[in-house]
Design goal:
By secondary structure, the protein is an alpha+beta fold. The chain contains 5 helices and 5 strands.
């Protein structure tokens, strides 16, 4: 009997909550609130200081009052903004990208292509020639590469030189990839493949260049034609 009474009370309580979840008539809601307060022995606002005001149902009314008295604010930035009567906007959708072929690796501190590197680039060129997709040539370096006796001042310059060497070979007359498709990126030593390796041979994967084919095509990166304005 005790369990049955408890279930009946809980069911009644939940029905009351559901019925009060959507307020259609404000006066009926306030009357229901007062009845519940009296049933639980609460007087006033239910706080430490007794009050005759009904408890607040939500913050919407207060927020609306605050918003009505708010003055619009103006920017005081010194930035002059975009110049000109017309803005040229180009939407570029790069989409998916994936590495084409194998990694092109280099000797420590060097940006010269090896015979094996040229052979791998020939295989890559056969896959990408004739397409209009952008190609990102991404150069990398190993953090342990000694630059003391190198002509490159830091690893970013070295990784860029490697990417440039690959791009130069792909766009040469011998290979024939369209130079408009090429984008060069220097990652330095920020994206290592082999970590916690210390020997020269183990760090070879970090001294690499990756040829990444993008879903975007060349035309999406071209600037719109200029218009002669009166």
């Amino acid at each position: 009997m005790t369990f049955g009474d408890l279930m009946s009370l809980l069911l009644t309580f939940f029905i009351l909550i559901v019925s009060m979840s959507e307020i259609k008539k404000e006066d009926q809601f306030l009357a229901s609130v007062e009845e519940v307060k009296e049933g639980f022995g609460i007087h006033g606002g239910g706080s430490r200081i007794p009050s005759q005001d009904p408890p607040a149902q939500s913050m919407h009314e207060k927020l609306e009052k605050l918003d009505k008295g708010r003055e619009p604010t103006l920017s005081h930035s010194n930035d002059e903004g975009t110049q000109g009567r017309h803005d040229n906007v180009t939407i570029v959708r790069e989409g998916m990208r994936y590495i084409v072929g194998s990694r092109i690796t280099f000797y420590s501190g060097s940006a010269d292509l090896t015979v094996e590197g040229k052979r791998l680039l020939g295989q890559i060129a056969r896959q990408v020639k004739g397409l209009k997709n952008k190609l990102e040539i991404r150069g990398h370096a190993a953090s342990a590469e000694a630059l003391v006796h190198s002509r490159y001042k830091d690893l970013f310059e070295l990784s860029f030189a490697r990417a440039k060497a690959v791009a130069k070979y792909l766009t040469s007359a011998e290979v024939g990839v369209d130079p408009a498709r090429i984008r060069l990126v220097a990652a330095g030593d920020s994206e290592p493949v082999a970590v916690r390796r210390y020997t020269d041979s183990a760090l070879e994967p970090n001294r690499r260049v990756e040829v990444i084919q993008m879903e975007a095509v060349v035309g999406e990166f071209q600037k719109p034609e200029s218009r002669d304005l009166p």
